[in-house]
From TrEMBL:
InterPro entries recorded: AlpA, Prophage_regulatory_activator
Xref: Gene3D superfamilies: 1.10.238.160
Signal peptide span: none
Annotated organism of origin: Photobacterium alginatilyticum
Record-given protein name: AlpA family phage regulatory protein
Superkingdom to which the source organism belongs: Bacteria
């Protein structure tokens, strides 16, 4: 299990910070989790699953 910081998520998805948080608000992007008591991060597998679902829906 690997956690990604916001910048890593931005680099991986090519989304900007505001787009990520807007998608989270609408339920269209994985939520971040609290790590080590206060840091926020995303599970890399959640981000990769989200990216795969976007690619699959684009193929339809």
């Amino acid at each position: 299990m690997k956690f990604l910081k916001l910048q890593q998520v931005m680099d991986k998805t090519t989304l900007c910070r505001s787009s990520i948080y807007n998608l989270i608000k609408t339920g269209d992007f994985p939520k971040n989790v609290t790590v080590m008591g206060k840091r926020k991060a995303w599970l890399e597998s959640d981000i990769e699953d989200w990216m795969m679902s976007k690619m699959e829906s684009a193929e339809l």
